[in-house]
Task: structure prediction
Amino acid sequence: HVVESGGGLVQAGGSLRLSCVVSGLTFPEFELRWYRQAPGKQREKIAFIDERNSRTHYADSVKGRFTVSRDNAKNTGYLQMDSLKPEDTGDYYCTAQHRIGGHEYWGQGTQVTVLS
Result:
C-alpha cells in the first residue's frame, strides 16, 4: 500500500526529496507521517501532514529544514529535505492512516546517508 523512494547518499548541506506513493487506499482520506530511524537509535516521528494538505507538524530536529507535502491527485506524499546533516542519516519511513484512526500502513523504508 505504501512505497517510499528517493533516498540515497548526499553530502552535508545537500538536499533530497523522498516520495511516498500510496495505492489501494482512498488517499485523500489518509493522513501521512514520516518517521526515521537512525543507526542505534529509536524510531522518531519527524513530520505529519493531514489529509487535506492544510496542517503540518515537524519534530524540532527537522523544523525549518524539512518540508512535508502531498499531491492528492497523484496519491503521493513528499518529504523535501534541505540543509542535510550527518545526523539525518537513517532509514526513512512513510505511513498512511485514515483521518478517523485505525490501521497505520507502513512502507518498507528508504535509506538516507549524509556524508560529513
